[in-house]
Amino acid sequence: MIAYGFVSFLWGFLEGTCFFLVPDIWLTFLACRKERDKWLTAAVIACIIGALAGGITMYFAAQHVGNRIFKGLFSIFIGVFQGIPYKIFASEWGALRGSLWLFILISIFARGIRFVFAVVLTRLIRFLGESKIPHWAKIKYVLLILFWVTFYSFYFIRHGI
């Protein structure tokens, strides 16, 4: 499924540079479907590569513009679960002229942890839903949409628009 990989890469790249909605939305949609694990794994990897490409873009762009927001690259591990956009970390580290290789290494793990967590949790919910909830196939996407609407509602309440 080349389209899955392309959309995953593109969404990861755009969210890493200018788009606001996280690629986890796409990945959880794929995980909710009965896709082969190898296609889902490829989509996660493409998303990580896309996010990394976006992050590297922001890293170099910030060297020309400058940006001072946070202290330390390792705070990216906390930020990915607190709603702090990845592009902020990439821009800051680039403005500080931090090591590109360290940024790449940490980005792979920080983004990968969250993407894999989202996919595994969605797969677990799908497995439980299929075995315990009647008519699961008819409601799974409604539940997924409700989750993401609720997620972003709380995000906007906490962080503003």
Identify the notable features of this structure and list them briefly.
161 residues; mainly alpha; 7 helices; 78% helix; 0% strand; globular
Order of helices and strands: HHHHHHH
Mean pLDDT: 85
What's the total count of β strands?
0
Gap between N and C termini: 35 Å
Annotate the secondary structure layout.
Blueprint: H1 2-17, H2 24-32, H3 37-65, H4 76-79, H5 86-95, H6 100-132, H7 136-159
Helix pairs in contact: 1-3, 2-6, 2-7, 3-5, 3-6
Characterize the structure shown.
The structure is a single chain. With 161 residues, the chain is mostly helical. It has one domain (2-122). The protein has helices at 2-17, 24-32, 37-65, 76-79, 86-95, 100-132, 136-159. The longest helix is centred in the C-terminal third of the chain and has 33 residues, at 100-132. 30% of the residues are buried. The mean pLDDT is 85.
Short précis:
This protein has 161 residues and is mostly helical. The chain contains 7 helices and no strands.
